[in-house]
User: What shape does this take?
Amino acid sequence: MTGAKVKTLRDSTAMRWFVLILISGLTFSTYWFQDFMSGLKGIMESEMGFSSEEFGRIIGLTTIANMFGMILVGGVILDKWGIRLTGYVFGILATIGAATTALAAAGFFGHDKGTILTMMIVGRIMFGSGLEILCVLATRTIVKWFKGFEMALAMAINIGFGRLGTALGMASSLDIGGGRFSPAVTFAATLIALSFLMFVIYTFFDTRIDKQNKDALIPGVVVPEEEFHFSDFVKLITDKSFIYITLLCVTFYAAVFPFIQYAPDMLINKFGFTSKLPPEGSVMIFGSEALGIVAVYLILFVFALAFSIVPSRINNLTYRRLFTFSLVSIFAVIVFNFWGILQIWLHNGSKTASLIPLGTIIFTPIFGNFVDRKGKAASLMMLGSVLLIFAHLSLSLSNSVTLGYLALVSLGIAFALVPAAMWPSVAKIVPENRLGTAYATMFTVQNWGLGTFFWGIGAVLDLVNHDNLPAIREGKMTYDYTIPIMMLVVCGIISIFLAALLKKADAKQAYGLEFPSGAKK
Assistant: This one.
């Protein structure tokens, strides 16, 4: 006979969401640092003398340690050491790596191009070695606090914070740096340090809930912790559903993350977008254009979360409709008053490219809530892959600016749809005490795809434009992005095939990917 259930911190709704904010700081800052250079490619070429291949090398080698098992080792460490110790070790590693990159960009290690390039790569490798483990850790922490509650929604919001970091990094780094490269890197590195401090604050709550969980055990009964065995890993990597969802993770993200790095430069070269905002496009707050840009994106983020989360929590249909109508009306008034500035932003490379992560901020919580309530995760992954193909075909083969906008929005929706369905699905396929290893395995394989395409797009871009490179650097010609983007269409086609196989495998293995969260299979 057992007593009444002992209440813990995770039973408090306010506490769960406060923890989500603390842990999402890591997601926000790491995504910012991963992607902020995409808006600076032109500056890196003109100010630092880097080529497209060298830009791709800096981005691509960020993943090198994870390609060779660092993240897998980190996942096993997470399962054995727990959240706190793992977070301290890899959080410090990422912070030191970000600081090294910033010091290299500032010329601390030397001012010649070769030294700067080498030390920036060293810093990015260190940062990347901690990056993916911190992403796994954030996801594992959300499972710890939200399983049995709003898990898919919480994961979706955490992803939304990451996309906000990407969008702001892309859109504002040039302005934050005052048109220079080094200050933008320093700011990005500072965000990593601040988010690590947020994690340190979280660990106090993590310690307390572990103690509460231990005290909640039946007196006199000792529940031994399960040790990690190699047979667990073998069982994991031979599970058909896990194989398909891992390969889908590779092909889908390889078609999105690398594209984001080159999207602003592609829009400038292919569609003639501006690289810098004209004065009439500035939004100033306290005399700062960078603060103005941050404020705009934070407002969009708050509206997106309110629109996607609050209505589903209002039971009264009349109140729900009234809230939605009021929110849309307020947003429409704001857009109307700033329409002139928004039109200028939509002809700027980095601002327009940020539509990709911006779309995920709007739609990821909606799709996460849908997966919680309705299921259909495997089907949604198939739909996201279709949108991916449409987006890249449009951007590679068409010169229509209107179709280009539609492609970016479609890519943003796909970028929200697939992760919102994918990550909760992993928690259904894999036991909770092996999620660290599972997520780490997925990220390890994913990094092979990311590293290949991060670097490969830059190398192919230089290769197909080889005869025109001198004229391009003189500003007399522009890059031709057709072939590099068509490479990503192939990834989308493979993604559809893998999503179909996943749905078929789930029908046999009965993990319940097509069922709502908590529903019996």
User: Anything to note?
Assistant: The domain at 12-276+348-509 is CATH 1.20.1250.20 (Growth Hormone; Chain: A;). The chain has a mean pLDDT of 84. The two ends are 28 Å apart (CA to CA).
